[in-house]
Amino acid sequence: PATALTEERTVDSLCPFCGVGCAVRYRVRDDRIIAVEGADGPANRGRLCVKGRFGFDYVHHPQRLTQPLIRRADAPKDPSLSGDWREQFRPASWEEALALASGGLKTILEQQGPQALAGLGSAKGSNEEAYLFQKLVRTGFGSNNVDHCTRLCHASSVAALMEAVGSAAVSNPVADVAYSDVILLMGANPEANHPVAASWMKNAVKAGTELLLLDPQALPLARHARHHLQFVPGSDILLLNAMIHVLFEQDLVNWSFVEARLKREEVEALRQAVQAYAPEAVAEQCGVTAAQIRQVTHVYASANRAMMFWAMGVTQHTHGTDNVRCLIALCLLTGQIGRPGTGLHPLRGQNNVQGASDAGLIPHCLPDYQKVAEPEVRARFAQAWGAPVPDSPGLTTVEMMQAAHQGSLQGMYIVGENPAMSDPDLTHTRAGLARLSHLVVQDLFLTETAALADVVLPAAAFAEKGGSFTNTDRRVQLGRPVIPAPGEAKQDWWLIQQMAQGLGLAWDYQGPEQIYREMQALMPSLAGIPYERLQAESSVVYPADDPAQPGQSVLFAKGFARPGGRARLVPATPPQQQENADKDYPFTLITGRLLEHWHTGTMTRRSQVLSALAPQAQILVHPETLTRLGLHAGQSARLRSRRGSVVAQLLSSSQVRPDDLFLPFSFREAAANLLTRDALDPVAKIAALKLCAVALEPVA
Ligand code: SF4
């Protein structure tokens, strides 16, 4: 007779993958998740994508870390990541591992000073964990060398938005597309990366909203678009400046909005700056027609309500900040902001990349974007924390890898991030990580980054902990523990606290609730969201001033968060340091994600369903290119850039232009970032991860 099964239970929580922040209901039996269903959350109303619905089983994967690991004395770090790196580690007790982890950092601090240490926190952890981590680096390490993966995705959006409108988050939620007459979508593939958000957009199109798609790839979403500008990769500044030119040329500027909300002299400076960008002057370089540029601009500007979305096709360039400045200028000059169905929406990637940035997990800002450079801000936090707050600028993610390579950075604590896959120029990055004299990695699996660690701390997965998470709409939502963590794995907040205690900090937090209360007291945006409200409502939009009122889902109805309420316009300059295709590297490689896989694949490639759906990396090549090169779909080919090479299978696809190729970056065996460059945007320090020049060669 079959053993009687224990009773099934359900727990309502959130999806751990993208920034849409879908509410899910976990079905659990015997402390194992057996199914996930969409719940009635404000972001999804029961909808889920394939990742949210089927990508949960990574939590039960046999490769989960269940005890601390320490590098064996006879196992040197191997940046080539060859062989089975699990053999390089031995199990250890928590006592031994934590003493070594924090002791190694402390020794570096005492001998070489605060600048020899840095921390990378996680956009997949909770707000409380992000808050604690940045507090640890600032008060324990004594520097602002703290960052996370926002540096690789929307740092340029944050920089441009802060500069222009005084707020780094979206102005309107995704669901506002229901009120839009026009959606302008640039450099984003929401069907793959924010699928439920894409479903709201498609619903809006079905109901009559017009979609304008600006993207070098003919994404499947193009079939829903009224206009698709399939521009040449890297010609974005030309294209956007031409669109701004058209606003002035065809008198599409909303002058009453401009008079009330912008500075006339900045508008004039922008008009002068785009004078040389007539559509006829740039259309050929952009690979579109002047008429198309005028049409798209006209449709956007003349709409009653137009909303703008963008993602990493816009941001991951050395001119990423300038790209976003141009989008903001288009929006502001036409007055498409401050009302439902309008506004600016950078589609945030990870489930908590918005919250992690808000909580201060960035080098130049304390929680709520309060600048470390301002003495009164530092004084306020120093008083609250009982410890001085360092004032010197901190290193950003890619700068940390460069400093590690140069030897000025000696110790790192990395929680839930995988720079050995996600950072540009991986050969250089991995060599830098291997050069560190002390690396502590805290994660679910023995990732490519953990392979180069001295100490590995096993952490609880999303479903094994509680805390608050902030989605792309600025919704602070409560994640609830669903199952216990396996073996000896611990919650991230507890581990961060152990590290802090090892460094001499007298922390004694009892859990996420206490941490949230401390964080909330220091973040004006959360003033109206006490913990009790979060527990009762599960999901509240910030900013919220009054606990009895809903938060503000639409920002800037009356003014911008800047002096005098006026926004700032900054003209973009032509990009100087792009790597263009040439005779040796004749193709432009576009990197990105797939619907089935999330970022470096740590979780989704350990999901049976997702892995079965997309088991390997494939290079998308236009059919004409295959014919011209005598190649065929299904064969293996080598992609070679100035920095490295990878081999993957060819897939014939008209999605890419004949001069372009596409490779997803989630697959270690064909890691796209072995090819990319670590050149940085001078303002936001985001790397040029989106494009690079490559050669394509057959492999015998
Ligand atoms: Fe999860 Fe994003 Fe898919 Fe929603 S859209 S189910 S949050 S991955």
Automatic annotation (TrEMBL):
One cellular-component annotation, GO: membrane
Recorded superkingdom: Bacteria
Keywords: 4Fe-4S, Iron, Iron-sulfur, Metal-binding, Oxidoreductase, Repeat, Ubiquinone
Domain 4Fe-4S Mo/W bis-MGD-type per the UniProt entry, residue ranges: 8-63
GO molecular function, a single term: metal ion binding
Alphabetical GO biological process terms: formate metabolic process; respiratory electron transport chain
Entry's family note: In the C-terminal section; belongs to the prokaryotic molybdopterin-containing oxidoreductase family.
Name this protein carries in UniProt: Formate dehydrogenase major subunit
Annotated source species: Ferrimonas marina
Lineage: Bacteria, Pseudomonadati, Pseudomonadota, Gammaproteobacteria, Alteromonadales
